[in-house]
Design brief:
three-stranded antiparallel β-sheet; 33% strand; 6 strands; alpha+beta
């Protein structure tokens, strides 16, 4: 069998490069995300995940937040005009 990824729009920013969006900073206030200059630690249902400077931090369609390496993100996603 073959499968195609369902198209969806997510919000994301590049850690250490782009301004941090409100949905990210809100989670730092509740300590669901811990930050340093070079990385962040995101508490997820699967455990803690680290996002490093240059990684994309994604907010999924259900509000979940997780890191993704830039080279993977750029192969899977394209920017959407608002």
């Amino acid at each position: 069998m073959k499968y195609r990824k369902i198209p969806m729009v997510v919000e994301a920013f590049r850690y250490g490069f782009d301004p941090k969006p409100e949905w990210f900073t809100d989670k730092t206030k509740t300590l669901e995300i811990l930050t340093t200059e070079s990385f962040c630690v995101i508490k997820t249902l699967e455990g803690e995940m680290k996002g490093y400077a240059g990684d994309y931090i994604i907010q999924g369609i259900k509000g979940e937040i997780y890191p993704c390496k830039a080279y993977i993100f750029e192969e899977i996603y394209e920017e959407v005009e608002e």
